[in-house]
Specification:
elongated
């Protein structure tokens, strides 16, 4: 009986590993289409910087600047990004927020996290 249960567990684990290693092509294509739609919509409307950023001209380029205080100092410094830099920064913030939310959902109570 024990051998049968272990064999069944091994087959189930192998099937799960194979499914995780090879995601369906439909899901990947759907995700790619969704990403393209979002970037196309973002390119159609004019760029609006996030609150706190002020546009400045640096030669023929427009950069968006804000005052930022680095950790360990009390002196503020001006940090400037171009349009692509701000988009990358916002994307990184979004990914960080999703990661924190995911960890919060997993460890929302003492019962789900154990003794961590």
């Amino acid at each position: 009986m024990r051998a049968l249960i272990l064999a069944l567990f091994a087959v189930t684990a192998a099937a799960a590993a194979a499914a995780a290693a090879d995601p369906p092509a439909e899901a990947a294509a759907e995700e790619g289409a969704k990403t393209e739609a979002v970037t196309a919509a973002a390119e159609d409307k004019p760029f609006e910087p996030p609150p706190g950023f002020k546009p400045k001209k640096r030669g023929k380029y427009t950069v968006y600047c804000r005052k930022d205080t680095a950790m360990g100092t009390r002196l503020p410094s001006e940090v400037c990004y171009d349009e692509d830099g701000i988009r990358a920064m916002l994307q990184a913030q979004r990914e960080d927020r999703e990661l924190v939310d995911q960890q919060r959902r997993i460890c929302s109570s003492q019962a789900t996290c154990g003794a961590n």
